Structure formats: structure tokens, C-alpha cells
Amino acid sequence: MKILILGGTQEARQLANRLVAQGHAVITALAGRTQHPILPQGEVRIGGFGGLGGLCAYLGEEGIERLVDATHPYAGNISANAVAAARATGVRLVRYMRRPWQPQPGQIWLDAGSVQAAAETLPAGASVLLTTGHTGLETFLARQDCHFVIRVIEAPDLPIPAHATLIQSRPPYDLGQELALMRDHGITHMVSKNSGGTQTAAKLEAAAQSGVVVIMIARPPYSPAIEAESVEAALAALDIARV
């Protein structure tokens, strides 16, 4: 069976590797934002589809029989296009959705509905660990009354001002690393997306132990689709047999 995975996550790679091992023809589509991604087995396609029409055309031209949305939980546009394309073409869609994180016992956790709301929540003088990727950096950096430690895989395409420190690193991170980072930079607040998963979850435990206030940006809304919270559940939901 020919399967298209909208990827870019650890779980997307795991799904691709499992499906290839089962004998299926798998294409993983990556947005191309990361210059040196860790690639899955099977074919890899890098770059966008050109919107909903392009995705529908690709599904037809390639003879795709199953579609998996295993993108980041905040990749709202491509997830919406996946639902619409599946409806338009009749291709079965399964969305892999990580279970969201929950506050640690005793943790100060503030919910924010947007990047702007998160930036406005920060008090003057805060020392902030930003773990939101490149999204909304300009909005946060406009708060010149705060100091930011920006942790990203790849450097953003904008100058880093004097009130910010850039750290380039790739997850996973363990609890010891996160505790040391928060201690060394005097972190008082951490801004995060509720990405779920295990690769960066240690930052929440570290924040709880360090008394760091967590500001969590809410996930975007999603159109209804078949959802799975584990790789095994996603494989089952695809309703396919081994080749």
C-alpha cells in the first residue's frame, strides 16, 4: 500500500520505519524548515504542496491510499489541509496527536491562548526560557524589559538583541540538563507550546523543581479526524495489512 506521512516529528519517523518494515511504499513529506533533519526510511519529499489544491493533486498523481498527519501539534495549516484533502479525495486519514502535557503538582502554570497573550503575561524583569521555536520570536523580543534565553535547533533568521541569549541544541533533554540550564541562566519563567511527548518533557519537571513559572501556549483547534495517541494506535487505525 502507498502511504503519505506528513512528518517532521520523532513519531512520524517511527511510523515510517515501521510501515517500511511491513513492506509498504512510504513517502514522508517534510516542510523543509530544518536544514539537517533526521530522515526516516522510505522516500522523503521536502517542501510544501502549494496549499489544499496541491495536496489533493499530489494524492491523486501518486496514487496515495492512506494519509497520516504526524506533524507538530501546532502545524495547524497543514493539518487543516490534510482533513480537507482526505474528504475531497476519499483517502483514509489518520492524525497522530501526542497527548498534551499537564501541570506538575504544585506547579505555577499559566495558560495563554496565543503568542501575543504569552508575551503580555510576562512580568517586567523576567528571565525567560523560550522553547517555542522560531514562532513569534519578534513578539517576545519586543519585550525589552525582559531577558530571553532562546533555545532552538537552528538559528533564527533575525538578529539576536542584547537582551537575549541564543542556545542551539537538539532534543532530547534530560532532567539534569534542564535543571542546570535554568540555574545557570537564572530562569524565572518558561514559555512553551504544549507539544506533548517525551523528548522535551523534562523541562516541565525542572521548572516545577526550580519554581519557574510555566506559560503554556494553547494548541490550535483541529477539524475532526481519526486520531491516535501512540504509534501502535496509528498503525491500527490505518487499517492495513502487512505486505
From TrEMBL:
InterPro entries, per the entry: Precorrin-6x_reduct
Pathway: Cofactor biosynthesis; adenosylcobalamin biosynthesis
Superkingdom of this protein's organism: Bacteria
Keyword line: Cobalamin biosynthesis, Oxidoreductase
Record has Repeat as a keyword: no
GO MF annotation terms: precorrin-6A reductase activity
BP-aspect Gene Ontology terms: cobalamin biosynthetic process
PANTHER family in the cross-refs: COBALT-PRECORRIN-6A REDUCTASE
NCBIfam families from the UniProt entry: precor6x_red, PRK08057.1-2
Protein name, as recorded: Cobalt-precorrin-6X reductase
Phylogenetic placement of the source organism: Bacteria, Pseudomonadati, Pseudomonadota, Alphaproteobacteria, Hyphomicrobiales
